[in-house]
Amino acid sequence: MKYYLIAGEASGDLHGGNLIAGLRAEDAQASFRFWGGANMEAAAGERGFKVRDYKDTAVMGLTDVVAKLGQISSNLKLCKRDILEFKPDVVILIDYPGFNMKIARFCHLNSIKVFYYIAPKTWASREGRNRKLKEYVDRMFIIFPFEIPYFTKVGMPFVYKGNPLIDAVDKHSYSRPVEGAYTAFLPGSRKGEISRMMPLLMQVADIMGGQFVVAGAPSRSADDYTKYIGDRKNVRLVFGRTYDILKFADRAVINSGTASLEAALIGTPQVVCWNTSALTYWAAVNILKVQNHIRYISLGNLIDDSPVFRELIQDDFTSAAVAAELARLSDDGRYRGAMLEGYARIREKLGGSGASRAVAAAMIQELEK
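^ thats the sequence. predicted structure below, dont judge the formating
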C-alpha cells in the first residue's frame, strides 16, 4: 500500500520513523511519501521520498505564524497537490494540528482516507476541534491511557496500542555525552520557551556551581542558547544527544513537554518548570484546568494522576526554588526513591514495548476492512 505521512516537529519525526519501520515490517509492498526528518528518511529507505524536512516547515508560536503566513500557505498548496499526485491509500497525520487539521479537511473533501496518529490534545484545549476530527478523520490512534475515557466520552473512534516513546527510549544506544557528574537543562524547543527558561537556568548554575549540560533542540541554533550562557565555564551546550544527556545526568530541569515523559521513562530525577505571559497563564488556570479538570501540566503526572515529580509553574518558577528542588533530588534519598517508584507506575500504565508496530498492524487492518 501507499502511505503519505506528515510530521512537523522533532517528536513527530521520531514517532513517524518508528511507525514507518512498523509499516514496512507488516506490509512488504509498502511505499512512502512524507514530510518529516532524518528518522523517517532512514526508516523509509529506498521505499520512501521526503517532500519537505520538518526543520524547513516548523512554526514556533503566534509571532512565527504571522511572519511565515506566505510560507505556510505555499506549503499547504504543495502538500495538497502532492497528495493528489501520489494517490495514497491513506494519509497519516502525526500531531502538528495547526497544519494537519487543514490537510485532514482537504483529504476528507477529496475522499482520501485519513488516520491521525498522536491526536491533537483537545482534552487540554480547543475542544472545538473534536467536531472537525469526527468529520474529517477516519480513525485516530492515541498514545496516552488517560485519553481513552476522554475520547470515548466525546464519541471519537480511536485505537490505543500503547505509547511509542517506550520503544524509542529502550532501543536507543546510549553513550555518555560529557565526562563527570552534571545536571541536565532542557529549556524547550520554541524560542519563547528558551528565552523564558534560560535566564533563570543560568542563575541556577551560578547559585549551585557544578557542571550543567544544556540539551539543544534540533530545530534551534547555537545562538539561541549561547547568548544566555555567555562565558560560563560550567555550562555546556550539546545538540543531538538529548537521550544521552538525560540518561547520564544526576538530575534534570525540564520545560514541560514530551521531554519530561522521556526523562521518566529513562529514569532521570527531574523538576518540571514552566512560565508564560500573564494572559496565557490566566487562560491556562481559568479555562484549561477548570473546564477540563486538568491538575498537572506534565504528561508523566497526568498519566499517573499524581505529583510524581514537582512542577514549578509561573510565579513558583524561581532560581531559588529550582536550586532547592535540585538539592533535594540529590540529598533526599527517600524523595528520590519515591519519584523512581512513580516512574515505574508511569511505564506500567503506558504498556509494554512494540507500540509502533502494533499501531502499524492496526492501521493495515483498518485499511483492509
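Confidence is low (pLDDT under 50) at residues 60-67.
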